[in-house]
Specification:
Elements: E1 3-5, H1 14-23, E2 28-35, H2 43-49, E3 65-70, H3 74-86, E4 92-96, H4 101-105, H5 116-129, E5 136-143, H6 150-159, E6 164-171, H7 182-191, E7 196-199, H8 205-215, E8 220-222, H9 224-228, H10 232-237, H11 245-261, H12 268-282, H13 284-294, H14 299-307
Parallel strand pairs: 1-2, 1-8, 2-3, 3-4, 4-5, 5-6, 6-7, 7-8
Helix pairs in contact: 3-5, 5-6, 6-7, 7-8, 11-14, 12-13
The structure holds flavin mononucleotide.
Residues 6-11, 32-33, 68, 95, 97-98, 139, 168, 176, 199-202, 222-225 line the site of flavin mononucleotide.
Length: 308
Amino acid sequence: MKIVLAPMQGVVDHLMRDMLTRVGGFDLCITEFVRVVDQLLPPKVFYRFCPELHHGSVTPSGVPVRVQLLGQHPQWLAENAVKAVELGSPGVDLNFGCPAKTVNKSRGGAVLLKDPETLYQIIKAVRDAVPSDQPVSAKIRLGFDDKSLALENADAVTQAGADFLTVHARTKVEGYKPPAYWDWIAKIKQVTDIPIIANGEIWSAEDALLCQQRSGCIDLMLGRGALALPNLAQTIKNAHVPMSWEQTKELLVSYSGYEIYSEKGLYYPNRIKQWFNYLKRQYPEAEEMFMELRRLKNADEIVKVLAS
Ligand SMILES: Cc1cc2nc3c(=O)[nH]c(=O)nc-3n(C[C@H](O)[C@H](O)[C@H](O)COP(=O)(O)O)c2cc1C
Protein backbone atom coordinates (compact mmCIF):
# COMPACT_ATOMS: atom_id res chain seq x y z
CA MET A 1 0.00 0.00 0.00
CA LYS A 2 1.21 3.48 -0.87
CA ILE A 3 0.10 6.57 1.01
CA VAL A 4 0.50 10.03 -0.50
CA LEU A 5 0.41 13.27 1.48
CA ALA A 6 -2.11 15.53 -0.27
CA PRO A 7 -1.22 18.92 -1.70
CA MET A 8 -2.84 21.61 0.45
CA GLN A 9 -2.28 25.17 -0.58
CA GLY A 10 -1.57 27.46 2.35
CA VAL A 11 -1.30 24.56 4.81
CA VAL A 12 1.10 21.83 3.72
CA ASP A 13 4.42 23.56 3.06
CA HIS A 14 7.90 22.06 3.33
CA LEU A 15 7.92 22.37 7.13
CA MET A 16 4.64 20.53 7.46
CA ARG A 17 5.87 17.92 4.99
CA ASP A 18 9.04 17.50 7.02
CA MET A 19 7.11 17.05 10.24
CA LEU A 20 4.50 14.65 8.89
CA THR A 21 6.98 12.52 6.97
CA ARG A 22 9.13 12.25 10.12
CA VAL A 23 6.10 10.81 11.88
CA GLY A 24 6.06 8.40 8.97
CA GLY A 25 3.86 6.23 6.78
CA PHE A 26 4.03 8.43 3.67
CA ASP A 27 5.55 7.33 0.36
CA LEU A 28 5.19 10.53 -1.62
CA CYS A 29 4.29 14.20 -1.08
CA ILE A 30 2.77 16.58 -3.62
CA THR A 31 3.50 20.30 -3.31
CA GLU A 32 0.96 23.10 -3.19
CA PHE A 33 0.04 24.00 -6.76
CA VAL A 34 2.35 26.20 -8.78
CA ARG A 35 0.19 28.34 -11.06
CA VAL A 36 1.26 28.46 -14.69
CA VAL A 37 -0.21 31.17 -16.93
CA ASP A 38 1.76 32.18 -19.99
CA GLN A 39 5.44 31.96 -19.22
CA LEU A 40 8.25 29.74 -18.14
CA LEU A 41 8.59 30.38 -14.42
CA PRO A 42 12.00 31.19 -13.00
CA PRO A 43 13.65 28.51 -10.84
CA LYS A 44 13.11 30.57 -7.68
CA VAL A 45 9.36 29.99 -7.95
CA PHE A 46 9.86 26.23 -7.99
CA TYR A 47 12.28 26.46 -5.07
CA ARG A 48 9.80 28.55 -3.11
CA PHE A 49 7.05 25.93 -3.41
CA CYS A 50 9.45 23.03 -3.13
CA PRO A 51 12.61 23.90 -1.15
CA GLU A 52 13.28 20.16 -1.09
CA LEU A 53 14.53 20.58 -4.70
CA HIS A 54 17.75 21.81 -3.10
CA HIS A 55 18.15 18.36 -1.53
CA GLY A 56 17.23 15.90 -4.26
CA SER A 57 13.51 16.62 -3.88
CA VAL A 58 13.12 14.48 -0.80
CA THR A 59 12.07 15.51 2.71
CA PRO A 60 14.75 15.27 5.43
CA SER A 61 13.38 11.82 6.25
CA GLY A 62 13.77 10.75 2.61
CA VAL A 63 10.24 10.87 1.20
CA PRO A 64 10.07 12.11 -2.43
CA VAL A 65 8.30 15.41 -3.09
CA ARG A 66 6.70 16.03 -6.48
CA VAL A 67 5.85 19.47 -7.85
CA GLN A 68 2.20 20.10 -8.77
CA LEU A 69 1.27 22.48 -11.59
CA LEU A 70 -2.05 24.16 -12.29
CA GLY A 71 -3.02 25.95 -15.47
CA GLN A 72 -4.84 25.67 -18.78
CA HIS A 73 -2.25 26.08 -21.55
CA PRO A 74 -0.80 22.74 -22.66
CA GLN A 75 2.42 24.20 -23.99
CA TRP A 76 3.21 26.43 -21.00
CA LEU A 77 2.38 23.60 -18.65
CA ALA A 78 4.66 21.30 -20.63
CA GLU A 79 7.58 23.75 -20.53
CA ASN A 80 7.20 24.32 -16.82
CA ALA A 81 6.86 20.59 -16.21
CA VAL A 82 10.17 20.02 -17.98
CA LYS A 83 11.74 22.73 -15.82
CA ALA A 84 10.39 21.21 -12.59
CA VAL A 85 11.86 17.85 -13.56
CA GLU A 86 15.18 19.41 -14.57
CA LEU A 87 15.34 21.02 -11.14
CA GLY A 88 14.91 17.58 -9.59
CA SER A 89 11.19 16.97 -9.08
CA PRO A 90 10.46 13.24 -9.46
CA GLY A 91 7.90 13.77 -12.23
CA VAL A 92 5.04 16.27 -12.04
CA ASP A 93 1.47 16.23 -10.86
CA LEU A 94 -1.27 18.19 -12.64
CA ASN A 95 -4.12 19.73 -10.67
CA PHE A 96 -7.65 19.43 -12.08
CA GLY A 97 -9.47 19.66 -8.79
CA CYS A 98 -8.90 23.10 -7.37
CA PRO A 99 -12.24 24.81 -6.72
CA ALA A 100 -10.98 28.35 -6.00
CA LYS A 101 -12.86 31.04 -7.95
CA THR A 102 -9.83 33.01 -9.09
CA VAL A 103 -8.31 29.81 -10.37
CA ASN A 104 -11.39 28.90 -12.33
CA LYS A 105 -11.65 32.36 -13.88
CA SER A 106 -8.26 31.82 -15.42
CA ARG A 107 -9.39 28.32 -16.39
CA GLY A 108 -7.25 26.03 -14.35
CA GLY A 109 -8.22 23.47 -11.76
CA ALA A 110 -11.66 21.88 -11.54
CA VAL A 111 -13.26 23.91 -14.33
CA LEU A 112 -11.26 21.84 -16.82
CA LEU A 113 -13.33 18.83 -15.75
CA LYS A 114 -16.07 20.28 -17.98
CA ASP A 115 -13.79 19.82 -20.95
CA PRO A 116 -12.24 16.34 -21.31
CA GLU A 117 -10.61 17.33 -24.62
CA THR A 118 -8.54 20.10 -22.97
CA LEU A 119 -7.72 17.75 -20.11
CA TYR A 120 -6.38 15.32 -22.70
CA GLN A 121 -4.41 18.01 -24.56
CA ILE A 122 -2.74 19.23 -21.37
CA ILE A 123 -1.72 15.82 -20.08
CA LYS A 124 -0.55 14.69 -23.52
CA ALA A 125 1.58 17.82 -24.01
CA VAL A 126 3.16 17.37 -20.59
CA ARG A 127 3.66 13.62 -21.06
CA ASP A 128 5.29 14.16 -24.47
CA ALA A 129 7.63 16.83 -23.10
CA VAL A 130 8.77 15.21 -19.86
CA PRO A 131 11.39 12.41 -20.10
CA SER A 132 9.63 9.06 -20.21
CA ASP A 133 11.27 7.77 -17.02
CA GLN A 134 9.65 10.61 -15.06
CA PRO A 135 6.03 10.03 -14.03
CA VAL A 136 3.25 12.42 -14.96
CA SER A 137 0.27 12.15 -12.64
CA ALA A 138 -3.06 13.94 -12.54
CA LYS A 139 -5.48 14.77 -9.76
CA ILE A 140 -9.18 15.14 -10.53
CA ARG A 141 -12.52 15.44 -8.79
CA LEU A 142 -15.58 13.51 -9.99
CA GLY A 143 -16.73 16.51 -12.01
CA PHE A 144 -17.59 20.17 -11.79
CA ASP A 145 -21.39 20.50 -11.37
CA ASP A 146 -22.19 16.80 -11.53
CA LYS A 147 -20.57 13.44 -12.16
CA SER A 148 -21.72 12.98 -15.77
CA LEU A 149 -18.21 13.38 -17.22
CA ALA A 150 -16.32 11.42 -14.53
CA LEU A 151 -15.67 8.38 -16.71
CA GLU A 152 -14.92 10.43 -19.81
CA ASN A 153 -12.39 12.48 -17.87
CA ALA A 154 -10.73 9.37 -16.48
CA ASP A 155 -10.54 8.02 -20.02
CA ALA A 156 -8.98 11.29 -21.26
CA VAL A 157 -6.35 11.09 -18.50
CA THR A 158 -5.59 7.51 -19.48
CA GLN A 159 -5.47 8.08 -23.25
CA ALA A 160 -3.15 11.04 -22.73
CA GLY A 161 -0.63 8.73 -21.10
CA ALA A 162 -0.71 9.72 -17.41
CA ASP A 163 1.15 7.29 -15.19
CA PHE A 164 -1.36 7.42 -12.39
CA LEU A 165 -4.47 9.27 -11.33
CA THR A 166 -5.62 10.53 -7.96
CA VAL A 167 -9.37 10.87 -7.58
CA HIS A 168 -10.86 13.16 -4.94
CA ALA A 169 -14.25 11.49 -4.79
CA ARG A 170 -16.48 14.57 -4.94
CA THR A 171 -17.48 17.16 -7.52
CA LYS A 172 -16.34 20.77 -7.33
CA VAL A 173 -19.85 21.77 -6.28
CA GLU A 174 -19.78 19.23 -3.44
CA GLY A 175 -16.74 21.06 -2.09
CA TYR A 176 -15.45 19.40 1.06
CA LYS A 177 -18.85 18.32 2.36
CA PRO A 178 -19.12 14.68 3.45
CA PRO A 179 -19.60 12.09 2.14
CA ALA A 180 -16.94 11.29 -0.41
CA TYR A 181 -18.34 9.01 -3.11
CA TRP A 182 -15.72 6.25 -2.96
CA ASP A 183 -17.92 3.90 -4.99
CA TRP A 184 -17.46 6.27 -7.94
CA ILE A 185 -13.74 5.52 -7.86
CA ALA A 186 -14.62 1.85 -8.41
CA LYS A 187 -16.58 2.91 -11.54
CA ILE A 188 -13.58 4.87 -12.75
CA LYS A 189 -11.37 1.85 -12.20
CA GLN A 190 -13.48 -0.05 -14.70
CA VAL A 191 -12.61 2.32 -17.54
CA THR A 192 -8.88 2.70 -16.94
CA ASP A 193 -5.92 0.45 -16.39
CA ILE A 194 -3.59 3.03 -14.82
CA PRO A 195 -3.04 2.97 -11.04
CA ILE A 196 -5.63 4.99 -9.13
CA ILE A 197 -5.14 6.65 -5.77
CA ALA A 198 -8.30 7.18 -3.74
CA ASN A 199 -8.75 10.45 -1.89
CA GLY A 200 -11.35 12.19 0.23
CA GLU A 201 -12.76 12.04 3.75
CA ILE A 202 -10.31 9.56 5.29
CA TRP A 203 -10.00 10.51 8.97
CA SER A 204 -9.22 7.15 10.59
CA ALA A 205 -7.86 3.66 9.87
CA GLU A 206 -11.49 2.47 9.72
CA ASP A 207 -12.31 5.07 7.06
CA ALA A 208 -9.23 3.99 5.11
CA LEU A 209 -10.37 0.37 5.09
CA LEU A 210 -13.90 1.31 4.08
CA CYS A 211 -12.53 3.53 1.31
CA GLN A 212 -10.35 0.68 0.04
CA GLN A 213 -13.31 -1.70 0.06
CA ARG A 214 -15.70 0.69 -1.70
CA SER A 215 -13.22 2.07 -4.22
CA GLY A 216 -11.30 -1.11 -4.92
CA CYS A 217 -8.08 0.94 -4.54
CA ILE A 218 -5.23 -0.02 -2.27
CA ASP A 219 -3.33 3.26 -2.52
CA LEU A 220 -4.61 6.33 -0.70
CA MET A 221 -4.01 10.06 -0.48
CA LEU A 222 -4.54 11.78 2.88
CA GLY A 223 -5.18 15.50 3.31
CA ARG A 224 -7.07 17.06 6.21
CA GLY A 225 -7.08 13.76 8.10
CA ALA A 226 -3.29 13.84 8.37
CA LEU A 227 -3.45 17.29 9.90
CA ALA A 228 -6.14 16.25 12.37
CA LEU A 229 -4.19 13.15 13.38
CA PRO A 230 -0.49 13.46 12.53
CA ASN A 231 0.15 9.70 12.63
CA LEU A 232 -2.93 8.79 10.59
CA ALA A 233 -0.76 7.21 7.86
CA GLN A 234 0.94 5.02 10.48
CA THR A 235 -2.40 3.97 11.97
CA ILE A 236 -3.49 2.86 8.49
CA LYS A 237 -0.29 1.23 7.32
CA ASN A 238 1.29 -0.15 10.45
CA ALA A 239 -1.61 -0.38 12.90
CA HIS A 240 -0.12 2.24 15.23
CA VAL A 241 -2.46 3.59 17.89
CA PRO A 242 -3.59 7.17 17.26
CA MET A 243 -1.21 9.70 18.82
CA SER A 244 -2.29 11.05 22.19
CA TRP A 245 -2.91 14.77 22.65
CA GLU A 246 0.28 14.95 24.74
CA GLN A 247 2.33 13.49 21.88
CA THR A 248 0.67 15.76 19.36
CA LYS A 249 1.39 18.78 21.57
CA GLU A 250 5.06 17.80 21.68
CA LEU A 251 5.03 17.69 17.90
CA LEU A 252 3.41 21.12 17.80
CA VAL A 253 6.13 22.52 19.99
CA SER A 254 8.88 21.04 17.84
CA TYR A 255 7.11 22.39 14.75
CA SER A 256 7.05 25.75 16.50
CA GLY A 257 10.81 25.58 16.69
CA TYR A 258 11.06 25.08 12.96
CA GLU A 259 8.56 27.75 12.15
CA ILE A 260 9.79 30.50 14.40
CA TYR A 261 13.42 30.13 13.58
CA SER A 262 12.97 29.54 9.90
CA GLU A 263 12.23 32.15 7.28
CA LYS A 264 8.53 31.57 7.86
CA GLY A 265 8.57 32.92 11.41
CA LEU A 266 6.27 35.78 10.58
CA TYR A 267 3.50 33.49 9.41
CA TYR A 268 3.69 31.21 12.38
CA PRO A 269 0.74 32.48 14.46
CA ASN A 270 -1.68 32.15 11.54
CA ARG A 271 -0.31 28.81 10.46
CA ILE A 272 -0.62 27.25 13.86
CA LYS A 273 -4.16 28.56 14.28
CA GLN A 274 -5.05 27.10 10.91
CA TRP A 275 -3.62 23.75 11.93
CA PHE A 276 -5.68 23.85 15.12
CA ASN A 277 -8.82 23.98 13.00
CA TYR A 278 -7.99 20.44 11.90
CA LEU A 279 -6.68 19.20 15.27
CA LYS A 280 -9.96 20.21 16.92
CA ARG A 281 -11.63 17.46 14.99
CA GLN A 282 -9.52 14.75 16.59
CA TYR A 283 -8.73 16.21 20.01
CA PRO A 284 -11.29 17.90 22.30
CA GLU A 285 -8.30 19.41 24.14
CA ALA A 286 -7.33 21.28 20.97
CA GLU A 287 -10.67 23.09 21.02
CA GLU A 288 -9.97 24.42 24.51
CA MET A 289 -6.44 25.43 23.68
CA PHE A 290 -7.57 27.09 20.47
CA MET A 291 -9.81 29.44 22.47
CA GLU A 292 -6.75 30.48 24.41
CA LEU A 293 -4.50 30.81 21.36
CA ARG A 294 -6.99 32.69 19.24
CA ARG A 295 -6.30 36.07 20.78
CA LEU A 296 -2.50 35.69 20.73
CA LYS A 297 -0.52 37.33 17.95
CA ASN A 298 2.98 36.68 19.09
CA ALA A 299 4.77 33.41 18.33
CA ASP A 300 6.56 33.24 21.68
CA GLU A 301 3.28 33.58 23.58
CA ILE A 302 1.77 30.82 21.48
CA VAL A 303 4.65 28.47 22.15
CA LYS A 304 4.33 29.14 25.89
CA VAL A 305 0.70 28.02 25.81
CA LEU A 306 1.55 24.97 23.71
CA ALA A 307 4.30 23.90 26.05
CA SER A 308 2.17 24.43 29.18
C1 LIG B 1 -6.82 24.07 2.47
C2 LIG B 1 -6.77 23.12 1.30
C3 LIG B 1 -5.87 23.36 0.26
C4 LIG B 1 -5.81 22.48 -0.85
N1 LIG B 1 -4.88 22.72 -1.85
C5 LIG B 1 -4.79 21.85 -2.89
C6 LIG B 1 -3.79 22.01 -3.90
O1 LIG B 1 -2.94 22.93 -3.86
N2 LIG B 1 -3.77 21.12 -4.93
C7 LIG B 1 -4.67 20.08 -5.01
O2 LIG B 1 -4.61 19.29 -5.96
N3 LIG B 1 -5.59 19.89 -4.05
C8 LIG B 1 -5.66 20.74 -3.00
N4 LIG B 1 -6.59 20.50 -2.01
C9 LIG B 1 -7.40 19.27 -2.04
C10 LIG B 1 -6.72 18.15 -1.23
O3 LIG B 1 -5.49 17.77 -1.84
C11 LIG B 1 -7.63 16.90 -1.12
O4 LIG B 1 -7.93 16.46 -2.42
C12 LIG B 1 -8.92 17.19 -0.37
O5 LIG B 1 -8.67 17.93 0.82
C13 LIG B 1 -9.69 15.90 -0.03
O6 LIG B 1 -8.89 15.06 0.77
P1 LIG B 1 -9.09 14.96 2.38
O7 LIG B 1 -10.55 14.68 2.62
O8 LIG B 1 -8.17 13.85 2.80
O9 LIG B 1 -8.71 16.29 2.93
C14 LIG B 1 -6.67 21.36 -0.91
C15 LIG B 1 -7.57 21.14 0.14
C16 LIG B 1 -7.65 22.00 1.23
C17 LIG B 1 -8.62 21.69 2.36
